[in-house]
Design a protein that fits this description.
This protein is of the alpha/beta class and 304 residues long. It has two domains: 2-108, ATPase, nucleotide binding domain (Nucleotidyltransferase, domain 5); 119-293, Nucleotidyltransferase, domain 5. 43% of the residues lie in helices and 24% in strands. The chain contains 13 helices and eleven strands. It has helices spanning 43-46, 51-70, 82-86, 90-101, 110-124, 162-169, 177-190, 208-217, 225-228, 235-246, 250-253, 267-280, 293-302; strands at residues 2-9, 13-22, 25-36, 75-80, 105-107, 132-137, 142-148, 151-158, 202-206, 232-234, 285-288. The strands form two sheets. A six-stranded mixed β-sheet has the order 8-7-6-9-11-10, with helices on both faces. Strand 7 (142-148) and strand 8 form a beta hairpin. It is globular and about 50 Å long. 48% of the residues are buried.
């Protein structure tokens, strides 16, 4: 049995997962947590990682390094996604992280991000022979994966995420109907070519938007992955949540049970992305996976 850690350095959040692995299975989850650092803040506008964003993320990774040492982790793997892929100064940040924490972050392409998300869902659900569409909404990108028991049929990554859409469209507080409408028009246009090769797929969503929706659905004071994982969100229920978020200020959103206060600013955009994709797929419900990229990375690197 070995103890391993995986880290996901995302555009909005950095996450760490530590577990004991034995004979190709997770024997025990030691730790699973994340910190919202907004590494991708303004990357779309400037093409650069901001100094403050790098410092916030570095601080979180230093804390993760302490957790790795405290829990006697044998090996770790860390990957970076949209913000690091798109910024011109990501090499500078990676070097600083390596020098100050010893953590080596590998920047992965959108296709690899999609593959690892697929592995997370396979590890978290008994898909059987079901034809599945997996949706991973991030801060800077959104991945769609079409798969079944034989593996991935197709996948693609779009440069659309909750943080990006918030910065581009949702500038008022509370958000104006016109702003939200313009964002939805943009999303529906971007997703117009979504056409999975399945008639009635099992739709699964993962990432921060989805896990927060699950926590909001169950009004959780403290996040509980066992309650969230496998929960379903219907389109009508989603529309109600969107209206509630849209009519509240960011300060008011922070009081919503189940919603991480630091995610209050970007949650409306995340739910808007979800609504646009469900509408395009003509799907009336989505199942939430608490397992996401960091879990897929664990399965990929340390289950052998």
């Amino acid at each position: 049995m070995g103890r391993y850690a995986t880290i996901d350095v995302g555009s909005n959040q950095v996450l760490i997962f530590i577990s004991d692995v034995e004979t190709g299975k997770i024997k025990e989850v030691i730790l699973d947590k994340g910190e919202i650092t907004k590494l991708g803040e303004d990357v779309t506008k400037t093409g650069l990682l901001k100094k403050d964003a790098m410092e916030r993320t570095l601080c979180a990774l230093k804390n993760f390094k302490k957790l790795i040492q405290k829990n006697n982790v044998e090996k770790n793997a860390a990957v970076g996604t949209s913000a690091l892929r798109e910024s011109k100064n990501s090499d500078e940040f990676l070097k600083t992280v390596k020098d100050e924490t010893g953590i080596n972050i590998e920047i992965i392409p959108g296709e690899e991000e999609a593959r690892l998300s697929f592995m997370a869902v396979v590890g978290g659900f008994n898909l059987g022979s079901r034809e599945t569409v997996i949706l991973d909404i991030g801060g800077g990108s959104t991945e769609l994966i079409y798969g079944k028991e034989t593996g991935i049929v197709d996948s693609f990554s779009l440069k659309i995420g909750a943080l990006k859409m918030t910065e581009k469209f949702l500038k008022s507080d509370p958000v104006k109907d016109k702003e939200f409408g313009e964002m939805m028009d943009c999303l529906m246009g971007e997703f117009k070519n979504i056409s999975p090769p399945f008639k009635e797929p099992f739709l699964v969503g993962l990432g921060g938007t989805m896990s927060n929706l699950g926590a909001m659905k169950h009004k959780l004071e403290k996040y509980n992955p066992e309650i969230v994982h496998g929960s379903e969100i219907g389109l009508e229920e989603l529309n109600t949540i969107i209206d509630d978020l849209k009519n509240k200020t960011i300060k008011e959103r922070k009081k919503i049970k189940g919603l991480q206060p630091k995610r209050a600013e970007v949650m409306l955009a995340g739910t808007g992305i979800l609504k646009a994709i469900m509408t395009r797929l003509n799907s009336d419900k989505i199942t939430i996976s608490d397992m996401s990229l960091r879990h897929g990375l664990m399965f990929d690197r340390f289950w052998k």
